[in-house]
């Protein structure tokens, strides 16, 4: 593979063609657009303009389906016709939506596929007044060319304050003592609490809310540690917080405050196994998402005295059933999802979502967009398998990072025979960012918000282009992702230069993993992957394959890359399902296997 030249590309923000910017066309104030940098391969810039309604001078209509602060409504009314209709049934919403260009909801209104279909193409923006978007069908929104925006920052201080309020109330038995006094009792000895000063608080998730909780806890004299694989160490040090591994956090903490998103990785992350590792008498606060705790396991931990108390603002099912054992437990303080419920936060959310919706209707690219904009069919068709490859390489790379290591520096290398102007890599970079960030974040990363999201998390992504000799018929020969200055849970993924390195190619339209560290492999990126470093000797494929077969785990692909015969080798195995803990334990017990890791795709 001859290399004729190489160059480093700057990571640049999305560009708008000045002559086609909607902001310079006042008559299109009611249109929604996505304006992208023009490519020399196409005769026209990549611009999508969708008229909102009626004449070009008509105001768009915004449906506010749940209560919104007056400041937000005022902003909306300056730009659009505003219809405040609350408590709509699904049928009423589907009937009304065909007359609207945008809708603003909180968590109580479901914006389903039926809603998008009923809009007949008119609905252009969905605004979620808050962070979570579980009530919006993102896939349907994207299919119908509808932008979804949220308001992720206005609730930060309110949620942090509520976390601290629950922390103090729990430590001093405020709720229980209040109920006792109102019942005519005076039980001072029963409700003796514990002090916060000098205690260790583990903040699980050092994002906006987590860092604000840490800042306030430091003011209360607590020793604060945190676990977050993406948190920059310098930002944590600036407020006196030590970043530690997950196990170190939960085993040393007197108090644990949860501020992580609910993802497949964090679902029930506090369970019987993790509770067993904690200090006896630990106290837990959750103002994040109910699903990060196995609620049945928490009841068992409370009954066993492992967890002394819990203060919970969120639950797996909301509202929880009346007979919920966790809510009724005498050592649990419960509130009905009040994290964002302050007058100031509600006004802040109203302003933030109103600004985002108005900006989107004006054709501006919103930093808080949570789904992808429309992409020209010819570009998407050609890049489709490489888009999948890019995201999966990102997912693989970040899963190879050992716990406690902060991901700060990522280098992406593209090898192509095409000239730089004939290959726009922004979509590929966005998908790599998506793969790296989404597994442990509630943020939805796409072409609109990728660079913004990476910058917000202190993640620097640089790009390098290797120009190859040969035919430019295929857009790319390979994509390589490197993560620098981190430790790896699979040492063989570390390249000779010290970075975690994974590389992939598209073969017959299917993404393949072709390199891990210094080892060449060839395995289809379908299902999941098991990587094993082993002594290169006969029978290893059969041994591991038999263990998986006994567990009814189907093997789709298997590849072995080695340094030299009878030396070290890396075996990459594609599996359809996740092996059980017992199967993984058996694989680890094979004497010739030196290390292994299971990676979800």
From TrEMBL:
Keyword Transit peptide: yes
Cited Gene3D superfamilies: 3.30.70.260, D-3-phosphoglycerate dehydrogenase, domain 3, NAD(P)-binding Rossmann-like Domain
Entry-linked PROSITE patterns: ACT, D_2_HYDROXYACID_DH_1, D_2_HYDROXYACID_DH_2, D_2_HYDROXYACID_DH_3
GO cellular component, one term: chloroplast stroma
Keywords (A to Z) from UniProt: Amino-acid biosynthesis, Chloroplast, NAD, Oxidoreductase, Plastid, Serine biosynthesis, Transit peptide
Reaction catalyzed: (2R)-3-phosphoglycerate + NAD(+) = 3-phosphooxypyruvate + NADH + H(+)
Record EC number: 1.1.1.95
InterPro entries in UniProt: ACT-like_dom_sf (IPR045865), ACT_dom (IPR002912), Ado_hCys_hydrolase_NAD-bd (IPR015878), ASB_dom_sf (IPR029009), D-isomer_2_OHA_DH_cat_dom (IPR006139), D-isomer_DH_CS (IPR029753), D-isomer_DH_CS1 (IPR029752), D-isomer_DH_NAD-bd (IPR006140)
Entry-linked CDD domains: ACT_3PGDH-xct (cd04902), PGDH_4 (cd12173)
Residue span(s) of domain ACT: 529-601
Pfam families: 2-Hacid_dh, 2-Hacid_dh_C, ACT, PGDH_inter
Record GO terms (molecular function): NAD binding; phosphoglycerate dehydrogenase activity
Main enzyme class: oxidoreductase
GO biological process: L-serine biosynthetic process
Subcellular location: Plastid, Chloroplast
Pathway the protein contributes to: Amino-acid biosynthesis; L-serine biosynthesis; L-serine from 3-phospho-D-glycerate: step 1/3
Source species, domain of life: Eukaryota
PANTHER family: D-3-PHOSPHOGLYCERATE DEHYDROGENASE 3, CHLOROPLASTIC, FORMATE DEHYDROGENASE 1
Family: Belongs to the D-isomer specific 2-hydroxyacid dehydrogenase family.
Protein name: D-3-phosphoglycerate dehydrogenase
Species of provenance: Quercus rubra (Northern red oak)
């Amino acid at each position: 593979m001859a290399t004729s030249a190489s160059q480093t590309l700057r990571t640049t923000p999305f560009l708008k063609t000045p002559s086609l910017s909607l902001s310079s066309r006042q008559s299109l104030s009611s249109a929604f657009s996505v304006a992208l940098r023009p490519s020399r391969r196409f005769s026209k810039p990549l611009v999508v303009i969708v008229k909102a309604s009626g004449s070009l001078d008509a105001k768009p209509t915004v449906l506010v389906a749940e209560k919104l602060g007056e400041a937000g409504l005022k902003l909306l009314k300056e730009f659009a016709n505003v219809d405040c209709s609350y408590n709509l049934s699904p049928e009423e919403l589907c009937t009304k939506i065909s007359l609207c260009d945008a809708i603003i909801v909180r968590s109580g209104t479901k914006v389903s596929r039926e809603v998008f279909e009923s809009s007949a193409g008119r609905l252009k923006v969905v605004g979620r007044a808050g962070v979570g978007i579980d009530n919006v069908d993102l896939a349907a929104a994207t299919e119908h060319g509808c932008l979804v925006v949220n308001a992720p920052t206005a609730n930060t201080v309110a949620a942090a304050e509520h976390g601290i309020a629950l922390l103090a109330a729990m430590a001093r038995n405020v709720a229980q003592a209040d109920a006792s006094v109102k019942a005519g009792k005076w039980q001072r000895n029963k409700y003796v609490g514990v002090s916060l000063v000098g205690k260790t608080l583990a903040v699980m998730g050092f994002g906006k809310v987590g860092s604000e909780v840490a800042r306030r806890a430091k003011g209360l004299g607590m020793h604060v540690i945190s676990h977050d694989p993406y948190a920059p160490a310098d930002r944590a040090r600036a407020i006196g917080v030590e970043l530690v591994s997950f196990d170190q956090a939960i085993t040393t903490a007197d108090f644990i405050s949860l501020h992580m998103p609910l993802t497949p990785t964090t679902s029930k992350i506090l369970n019987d196994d993790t509770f067993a590792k904690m200090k006896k008498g630990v106290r837990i606060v959750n103002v994040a998402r109910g699903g990060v705790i196995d609620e049945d396991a928490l009841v068992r931990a409370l009954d066993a005295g492992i967890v002394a108390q819990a203060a919970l603002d969120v639950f797996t099912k909301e509202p929880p059933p009346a007979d919920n054992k966790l809510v009724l437990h005498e050592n649990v303080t419960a509130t009905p999802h009040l994290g964002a419920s302050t007058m100031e936060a509600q006004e802040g959310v109203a302003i933030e979502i109103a600004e985002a919706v108005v900006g989107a209707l004006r054709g501006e690219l919103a930093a808080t967009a949570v789904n992808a904009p429309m992409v020209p069919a010819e570009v998407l068709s050609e890049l489709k398998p490489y888009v999948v490859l890019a995201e999966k390489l990102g997912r693989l790379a970040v899963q190879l990072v050992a716990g406690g290591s902060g991901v700060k520096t990522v280098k992406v290398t593209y090898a192509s025979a095409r000239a730089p102007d004939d290959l726009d890599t922004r979509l590929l970079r966005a998908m790599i960012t998506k793969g790296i960030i989404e597994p442990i974040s509630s943020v939805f990363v796409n072409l609109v918000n990728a660079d913004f999201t990476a910058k917000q998390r202190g993640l620097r992504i640089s790009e390098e282009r290797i120009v190859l000799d040969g035919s430019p018929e295929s857009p790319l020969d390979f994509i390589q992702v490197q993560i620098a200055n981190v430790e790896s849970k699979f040492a063989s993924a570390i390249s000779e230069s010290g970075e975690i390195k994974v590389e992939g190619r598209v073969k017959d339209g299917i993404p393949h993993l072709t390199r891990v560290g210094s080892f060449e492999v060839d395995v289809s990126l379908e299902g999941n992957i098991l990587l094993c470093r082993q002594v290169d000797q006969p029978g290893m494929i059969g041994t591991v394959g038999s263990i998986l077969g006994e567990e009814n785990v189907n093997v789709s692909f298997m590849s072995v890359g080695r340094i030299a015969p009878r030396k070290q080798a890396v075996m990459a195995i594609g599996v359809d399902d996740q092996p059980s803990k017992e199967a993984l334990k058996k694989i680890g017990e094979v004497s010739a296997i030196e290390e292994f890791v299971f990676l979800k795709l």
